[in-house]
Amino acid sequence: MANPRFAWGIDIGNRALKAIKLVRDGDSLRMEDVEVIEHEQVLSNSGDNRESLIQTALANFAQRHLTKGGVVSIGVSGQSSFARFIKLPPVEEKKIPEIVKFEAIQQIPFPLDQVEWSYQLFRQPESPDVEVGIFAMRRELVNQQIKYFTDMDMNVQVVQMSPLAVYNAMYYDNRLSDGTTMILDLGAENADLIIADGETVWLRSVSIGGNNFTEALVKSFKLNFAKAEELKRNAQTSKYARQIFQAMRPIFADLVAEIQRSIGFYSSVHRESRIKRIVALGNTFRLPTLQKYLQQNLQIDVERLDAFQAGAPADGRLAALLNDNIASMAGAYGLALQAMGQGKIGSSLLPQEIRKAKIWQEKTKWFATAAAVCVVAAGVKYGTYYFHNDQFDAKLPLQQQIDRTVSQADGFDRDWQTVESSGGPDKTKVSNINALQMYRDVWADLWYDITRALPAQNGDSPEKLKAIPRADRQQVFIESVNSQYLPDLGPSLKMDSDNFKMLAQPSAGPGGGQIQAYAPAGGDRGGRFVGNVRSAYEDSGRGRVAPAPAAQEGAGGTTPAAPTDRGYLITLELTSPNKAAPTLVDNTLLKDLMERVSQTNAFK
């Protein structure tokens, strides 16, 4: 893509359209224009009106601003897209695209012809390791998003995931150079957690956003969503400020828990990294106590965004608009930077056919000039033909010498091909050895998901634990874990509840053969019980919402799997002193695993 004169970065969020225009100013970029157009209704609550609200916002934008002559970069939600980060084996540089495509086929849960995908290589200075980020989105969703803009005659050149656009913005503004940094972009529907360490990046989206705070006020104060949103925005000056923040406190705690969980997972994979600070983005951070609450509970410095390196528009009204909304403008800023060729991550989900069409469109203006040059060249050609023909005949001996040299070179080439093909069996052995590394971390991830779903223990010391009556202790212990690999989980997942329990495989230890298969309903005593967990497990790698069982018994039925789903049938044998042990398991272990099922299937 040729360097444009100017570019618009447009981010359509749940509450508003945000846009930033960057222009070239010598060797640097300057912000010339900014726009924020709020939707008449929050998109997540608009139902069938969602599409018309987006079209209305874009129509208003097109009326106010000129995009012709420049390019447009648009963002797509990290929640509806797909990202994986994988370390590549040592290979030749020219073979990296082939290896990446192989990994994309393994990682993306859809055939490649049904998605738009791209990748980005990450290399640490002075390190031979190469990490690749694979990004994808279902093709119909990408085309639908682009159509909104092309209907307004906008020249879309970049389609980027919003978390990566935010990363580009922070990288360009040199906010990621001092140690490991987390970017927390708290949007309306979800929060994007982006951890940057040197030249590498890791990201995760969690389903906690500004709307969760508003919904908490809806329930506490019995208001409709619009009035609760207004109450949240004016919480600081309200005479009911204390009650407002008390109502939102559970959401604060949930957000801290998700951040801590993400930090814990990242630290377990990157043991040498320690997050030094958090950069807070999103208008939800207008809540005056949120920044302080996160800082106190995470014990990490939390900084708010206050300016961009590209400056502010010269127009005072636009500068004030930017200042009021700067916390939510990083995505639009990063999109515009990438369109101007200044994005650290240059991958794009723009469909290949659109790229080719735009390349031909850019070349059309040169066709007329080329045709005129061809006419002139034809006249010159006929005039020089006879002259060159005479010269060719005069140098026939040299031509014969060239033919002999070419023939000799062809012979050398054939000899080399014979030598090169002799290493075929050795290449096959190397390939087979490398294949042994596939799926080696499946059981580590399975065990990680199961153990972290166990309920938190009462108290943080043996003395506190002993003070709680044994029958009230929130404890569940894993006595044994038995598993059976099934190449096709379909028949098992179609069984009714009673038959499925028969598949349980308790241990052969004391009591193992006589224990009834666990049924969560009923029972009020502590004890020992066995339960099956149905698991169509995907090894999703780093940068993921942790994978989990695709379905489980005793929590509302079963979740059907595709006929070709493979996975493990896992039997957990548990003990608990709690008097309502089955209910405790239902409300903690099984509930947590089912939530991971929903998160894993959200992209599907």
Strands, helices and their partners?
Elements: E1 6-12, E2 16-25, E3 28-38, H1 50-64, E4 71-76, E5 82-88, H2 96-107, E6 115-123, E7 130-138, H3 139-150, E8 156-161, H4 162-172, E9 180-186, E10 191-197, E11 200-206, H5 210-221, H6 225-233, H7 241-269, E12 275-281, H8 290-298, E13 301-304, H9 316-325, H10 330-339, H11 352-364, H12 367-394, H13 396-421, H14 424-435, H15 442-452, H16 462-466, E14 477-486, H17 490-493, H18 497-501, E15 527-535, E16 567-576, H19 581-601
Helix pairs in contact: 4-10, 5-6, 5-7, 7-8
Can you summarize this structure?
With 604 residues, the protein is an alpha/beta fold. Helices cover 42% and strands 21% of the residues.
Report on this structure:
The chain starts with 5 loop residues before the first strand and ends with a helix. With 604 residues, it is of the alpha/beta class. A 5-stranded mixed beta sheet has the order 3-2-1-4-8. Strands 11-10-9-12-13 form a 5-stranded mixed beta sheet, with helices on both faces. About 8% of the residues have low confidence.
What features would you highlight for this structure?
19 helices, alpha/beta, 604 residues, globular, 16 strands
Distance between the termini: 32 Å
Provide the spatial order of strands within the biggest beta sheet: 3-2-1-4-8
Q: Find the count of extended strands (DSSP E, 2+ residues).
A: 16
- Structural class based on helices, strands and sheet pairing: alpha/beta
**Proportion of beta-strand residues:** 15-25%
Q: Compute the CA-based radius of gyration.
A: 30 Å
Average pLDDT works out at: 81
Shape: globular
Q: Tally the helices.
A: 19
Helix content: 40-55%
Low-confidence stretches: 512-530, 533-563
Largest sheet: 5 strands, mixed
